[in-house]
Automatic annotation (TrEMBL):
Residues 1-39 are annotated as: Disordered. This is ABC transporter ATP-binding protein. It comes from the Bacteria. SUPFAM superfamilies: P-loop containing nucleoside triphosphate hydrolases (SSF52540). Residues 1-21 have a biased composition (Basic and acidic residues).
Length: 273
């Protein structure tokens, strides 16, 4: 590993995170724990809750991610993976537990306020504006920003070159994998401090899935923590620093991606043996 890598944590693309905001040098790992605020950079801690007046879907569910990490949530259909992501993003009222970002309790903030605090969320469905062009989608991602976002757009185009080629096309004309790139790019336009992706490889071919995972690893290497839900459990755990298996709204197994891939029970129950 080169010194340069150690010095900047591999982040050759720092302005896509907020590290260089305002020009003033910020401490390495802007997500480092603040004094008196121990714990992970982003955590949904012992979350209990459901939709409206309906039954609880999450039962003391905990997921977390730290800078430079990819944390992956896997589990059967209906386990509450998307619900956990929505809870962290502020889309449901929790009956128990808390959400903390960079040591701050944000449990009662609206989704929009969470975006302003640095959360980038790509939901599982309806995550792009199909009738708008690729570039308009990216501009929508920057709607909260008052500064010049063209540099960030160039970085998104560097990460996903196909989007630059197709920037004048309606996003609805793109392939599934390209749409997912638009959705991730849109979230990156907010210059998030943490990126949350719900099934970013849904409905794409294995080759496109590998490419998307490569891009996600590239983004994580810039220091941006990534919390993602994946239905391709095995492949996702292979790139995961941390993995969570959720079952019926509860944590069933937690460990490094490698630990979970090697756990006989996880293999048997969730990875097809
Ligand atoms: N908007 C909603 N309103 C009410 N119930 C919902 C809603 N979305 C999901 N659910 C229910 O929450 C449970 C978990 O769903 P979900 O979080 O989408 O699972 P997963 O993402 O793990 O497949 C399911 O029983 C589902 O029917
Ligand atoms: Mg889901």
């Amino acid at each position: 590993m080169s010194d340069a890598y150690q010095d900047d944590h591999g982040n050759n693309d720092r302005s896509i995170t907020r590290d260089n905001e305002g020009g003033a040098p910020r401490p390495k790992h802007s997500g480092a724990v603040k004094p008196g605020a121990p714990g992970p950079f982003l955590i949904g801690d012992a979350m209990t809750g459901g939709y409206g007046k309906g039954p609880d879907i999450l039962h003391g569910c905990t997921v977390a991610v730290d800078p430079g990490e990819i944390a992956v949530i896997v589990g059967p259909n209906g386990a509450g993976k998307s619900t956990a992501m929505k809870a962290i993003f502020g889309m449901l009222d929790l009956h128990g537990g808390a959400v903390r970002l960079d040591g701050e309790d944000i449990t009662n903030l609206s989704p929009q306020d969470r975006v302003a605090k640095g959360m980038g969320f790509v939901p599982q469905t309806s995550n792009i504006f199909t009738s708008m062009t690729v570039e308009e989608n990216l501009e929508m991602g920057a709607f909260l920003r008052r500064d010049d976002f063209r540099g960030t757009m160039e970085q998104v185009y560097d990460l996903f070159p196909i989007l630059k080629d197709k920037r004048r096309q309606p996003a609805g004309e793109l392939s599934g994998g390209q749409r997912q790139q638009v959705a991730v790019g849109r979230a990156m336009m907010t210059r998030p401090k943490v990126l949350m992706l719900d099934e970013p490889t849904a409905g794409v071919s294995p080759i496109v899935m590998d490419e998307l995972f490569d891009r996600i690893i590239e983004v994580a290497r810039t220091g941006l923590p990534i919390l993602m839900v994946e239905q391709n459990a095995r492949q996702a755990l292979e790139i995961a620093d941390k993995g969570y298996v959720l079952v019926q709204g509860r944590n069933a197994h937690t460990g490094t991606g490698r630990d979970l891939l090697n756990d006989p029970e996880v293999r048997q129950s969730f990875l097809g043996g």
